[in-house]
Amino acid sequence: MTTKKLFMTISYFIFLGLFLSCGSKSNDPRSREIRKTAEEESPDSPKADPKSDGGDENPTSDPKPTPQVFDESKLAEYILKKKDLEGLEPLVEPRVSAAVSGGLALKSARNSQEFANFVADVANRSMKLSALKPGRQFKATVIADNSLNALMTLDYQIGMHTGTITKGSADEVLSVVCHEVAHGARNHAYKSVKKSRELIPTEINRQIDQYMARQYNLNTKVYTHRSSTYLSLRDKWDQSTPEISTYYKRQEAEADVVGAKICAYMGLSPDQFSKKIVSFLQKGSTKDRPSTQRIRSARDLKEGDQLQIPEDVVMDFFFPIDSHPTVDERKEQINRLKGELSVNEEGIDGSLYSSWSENFDKKRNTLSNSGLSLVGTSPKESGGIVFTDLSTGQEVVIEKGPSCHHPLHLHQEQNFP
């Protein structure tokens, strides 16, 4: 496999990312709700004399408190405001035919086709609703990966990790599906690849390409660390990614809002979508991991350290992008806007939600025949990146909550426009 092939395998976008976010550690105070509240009347303030103005003998009742007001101008720029919602109509953009040529071949988990068809069916039925014209045709694949992730490829393929399916409730997984469908409906993967090419210098990509070709063995999946070279490249990378990071976060914020409306048309209310997407995002905590599991950053590696790490996460680990808003930011956004996300009742097809709810457990149980456990406490099921430190033989868990994959920096497909 060539180096180019390695990086093509991680060009898929996506979701759920939902969660503690793809490596996001930001706690931007601008994203918090800014509220203006009325000052409470001091207990020492004088009372009006009811007889002084011929009024009632009983004191007047206290005035009603001033309603809380959100100052949306203080929110982070990638968080949606009410004024942005009009720009999201129509919810589904025309299909980008050029994107199909840049798709990623996803490898299906064994005996997973029945559940994959179940996901594709509900997604495609929703796209036939009049409110979601011009619609879209999706495929779905179940990926044998116990991390809490999902993705949308350039060619409109929904990738559902087994960790998402097995650890989420029916409503939580449907909220994830709607988020991913929203990515596809808005052509996010295609737009992100083009934007990353515009914003990240070609020379930096070339240098990273050369470094990883030397240090990462595609056959054995073993990486050998060269500290000074890596830190120099990492500094350049981190300096080049803030703008694309903001762009990716905006797409995630948009997918939450559009996903809420798509779910509403299926019969899951914006209020329920908000509760379920947040509960799913909050999964994957490391508090229950064994103390023997070490959590660290690639910056902490020492010269000559060797790690055996899967190729589909190697770039996420060594050259990450802060691509998702925090869970608190996403929770704030969807709760603040959910009153604006209700849809006309005549546009809702409740049979979609009913069909999903009634059949989810039965379809999920078909995965038990694929050798995948539906329960367990393996670190791989908690949303982190897990690999082996060859110097100690220990598994290493890199902190990472439920999330979508993002389109990384190296998109060199010859057939991508």
Q: Descriptors for this entry?
A:
417 residues; five-stranded antiparallel β-sheet; 12 helices; alpha+beta; 11 strands; single chain
Brief summary of the model shown:
With 417 residues, the chain is of the alpha+beta class. It is built from twelve helices and eleven strands.
Give a verbal description of the structure.
- Helix 6 packs antiparallel against helix 7 and helix 8 (242-266) crosses helix 11.
- The relative contact order is 0.22.
- The chain has 417 residues and is an alpha+beta fold.
- It has helices at 3-8, 113-126, 162-167, 170-185, 188-199, 202-215, 227-240, 242-266, 270-281, 314-318, 327-337, 350-365; strands at 35-36, 69-70, 139-143, 149-152, 157-161, 216-217, 222-224, 306-308, 385-389, 394-398, 403-404.
- Strands 6-7-8-9-10 form a five-stranded antiparallel beta sheet. Strands 3-5-4-11 form a four-stranded mixed beta sheet. A two-stranded antiparallel ribbon has the order 1-2.
- The model is unreliable at 3-56, 285-293, 371-383 and 405-417 (pLDDT under 50).
